[in-house]
Amino acid sequence: xxGNNVNSTGGCPVMHGGNTTVEQSVTEWxxxxxxxxxxxxxxxxxxxxxxxxxxxxxxxxxDYEAVKADVHALMTDSQEWWPAxxxxxGGFFIRLAWHSAGSYRLGDGRGGAGSGNIRFAPLNxxxxxxxxxxxxxxxxxxxxxxxNALSWADLIxxxxxxxxxxxxxxxxxFGFGREDIWAPETDINWGNDSVLMAPTDERVTDVExxxxxxNPLAASHMGLIYVNPEGVNGNPDPALTAQYVRMTFSRMAxxxxxxxxxxxxxxxxxKCHGMMADIGPAPEGAPIADAGFGWDNPNFNGxxxxxxxxxxxxxWTTNPTQWDHGYLELLLGQEWELKKSRAGAWQWEPINLxxxxxxxxxxxxxxxxxxxxxxxxxAMKIDPIYREICxxxxxxxxxxxxxxxxxxxxxxxxxxxxxxxYYGPDVPAEDLIWQDPVPAGNTDYDVATLKAKIADSGLTAxxxxxxxxxxxxxxxxxxxxxxxxxxxxxxxxQKDWEGNEPDRLEKVLKTxxxxxxxxxxxLADVIVLAGTVGLEQAIRAGxxxxxxxxxxxxGDASAEQTDADSFTDLEPxxxxxxxxxxxxxxxxAEELMLDRAQLLGLTAPEMVVLVGGMRVLGTNHGGSKHGVxxxxxxxxxxxxxxxxxxxxxxxxxxDQDGLYQLRDRKTGAVKWTATSADLVFGSNSIxxxxxxxxxQDDNAEKFVRDFVAAWTKVMNADxxxxxx
Length: 724
Hints:
By secondary structure, this protein is mostly helical. The chain contains 24 helices and eleven strands.
């Protein structure tokens, strides 16, 4: 019998691997194939909630005080199956919240606590998150009780915040409102390391210079949230570790004071747990009978002092369940030496510590242990800048508590976006600059009058459409930053970004600014409205009369309300929608386009329709003609798709920069030029399927309506006030 016999693989009728494992995926077989999974997450295929479920409405009905009371009670409700250190889960839940939030990085806004992503791979199985599967199971009774309105993302962060309150810290506040995801985030590049915990060398060009780490990565190893607690590549060196600590936290938009405060405050409570040599696999690789748990420890005897996590062993302070000044008293007041933990990990321990300063055993208080410090802790003592900050904290405990509570709030809320997304009684009244505050905009003006004045301004449709797009395309659904609201495109650093064509931008803003202010509208509104005017002109030129929706009410942010340094990371280095790259990159243009589309919250069909429309509208960066497959530029038509799929044209590469020519098959005459970000819509099987829909003779009006819907989605991506 031949290989098609169903019994040739042992009689099993199941196609092993091909339908269930990534090793047999299309991109594994054909590495050059474009993987569109990054956009599929915006569909509803993984979400079990009803189609009309509105999480914001659900959160508004949550009994906030009851939830907080239940989490408070849980802190000291030690469970036999996973007992609490010293009878208090505070340190455990703080670590859960911290490691959930700590995956955030400023470079692309991805990671963080805002989606409950620590429930899924790879985060749920990173070595740095060992045993946090148990922390989440401890929270399950609370989640079960309050149901949909209490997301895992909120509960995880709340547990850490309540833990600090339970141990004596006055916290800065808390905002409910995070919404859970339901599958692993395929859009996040956690690094291309060969294995988990591969040497730092694999993600830097120079190990001695932490700033050479590849963006947007921030952790020193695949599988860690921040830095190796034993030192860079497991070699203790507090001075070098300080470099990596500074780099990591700066890539989360934390300054040195916030970094020091988080280190001190994070290690004021709780402890490290030694990892035994025969720990079982992480949750994603564990046997089914382990019920979703990982890191099984056959030597765990139900005592807190035999629990297992990182390999280091011990607490940082004498009183690990109290918010106090013990961390700095020990760190600055004692001399420290390198030792090995019971699991063989490097850690620092004090020399000749008095018995009264030692730490009670987590299970048996009659036994005392040395406190410990990690290499990152010693960096606070060795690095001169961190040392100076820590000495200020040491002299002023109230200052430390205030600085830490604010930094903790920032750490755990950084990816929630503006304050309009926060719910509950503990949302701070203060507007914080990292929340990108925008004042409320005026709505008391006549849109029709403004549209008429914009139309008579002398600006071209392409100029208005491109400016509106550039203003809105900064939006990142990952951390809800950027977007058109605030009109920050007129401020530094955005007004000078190459991708925004500063000369064209200045011309448009000079024209639109007096129109806005003379009529009581914000410039943010008028920029978007001008794009609407230009788009409606292009629609009418194509013979259709489709109105482009417009929602007024945007405000204009000031320079004082703008954290210019952190906005630098929002600068587009490429924009496939306007067929532009700042320079040639190792990553293909079409992959960069997918990344931008995903951050904008677009589906694959929405990306397709927007690109096709933007090409014929003549909005390419710098007026480039690449991909402008039409002889009626400025008209919103299906010409891009019609000519892309026309077999009368043949495609020919012309140089090494990814440029192509479309030639007439019969004459060989060059009809158009293109980039790979154009031709991928005809070469990739999935994208071509979408392109063919719009190339059909019966879908010209559908194309216009679909383009308008996708355009409006981008323009309103940051309008959280429009969401019920």
